[in-house]
Task: structure prediction
Amino acid sequence: GTGTTTETATTITPGTAPGFPPFEMKEGDELVGFDIDLLSAVVAEAEGYQLGEWQEFAFDSLVPSLTSNKIDVIAAAMTITDKREQTIDFTNPYYNADQAILVREDGSFSPSKLSDLSGHKVGSQSGTTGENIAKELIKEGTLKESNYNSYDSYVFAVQDLQNGNIDAVILDVPVAQTFADQRPVEIAFTHETGERYGFGIRNGDDDLQSALNEGLAAVRDSGRYEEIRNKWFGS
Ligand code: ARG
Result:
């Protein structure tokens, strides 16, 4: 790994993909959010490890960056999926989410189920579980491939939604809710996927995995998890 051992602790370099509020986003030059606070708290409780400097990537570059040792841990609201588990490992889950279909709040398009997206323009972020849903819709013939836009960041997707370039964005419910609170967009309906987020680590980094899982348990037990959740989601 890229970890460097000092007398006391191994430094692990964290990677994320900002533009996914309130989990990770930029406030000016500063990287902030639930994942940033939570991983910091977890590593502070993880025996033998300390956190290095955050590195930022496009979401679909995070797994390759991990496997090529550019980073040692992913904290990016990343859903634990069977497909990803073929390449990397995850800690225990730390947050649950479903998918939402986000539309403009002007009432110009009000879908209530996935098949209603037929004939409309849809966007999501490249490499996400939201994009997987769009790809399924394309495969089954509900969505035309030419009506699907893949974005490097959900911020650009939501901007295109506001501009009228697309009609719907598929993304995680808590993030859709955050955009809906800040912009003239709303959740048309949710699609239950039962996703669980975990911190991503390299296959075989078993010591790190145990340390992070123990850190996560300690952060939950101490009430720190709830404090961080309340800070970013309200109580
Ligand atoms: N939970 C979804 C997934 O794992 C979306 C995560 C997007 N995260 C981000 N930091 N942009 O695919």
About this structure: Helices lie at 34-44, 62-67, 82-85, 129-139, 154-163, 173-182, 206-221, 224-233.
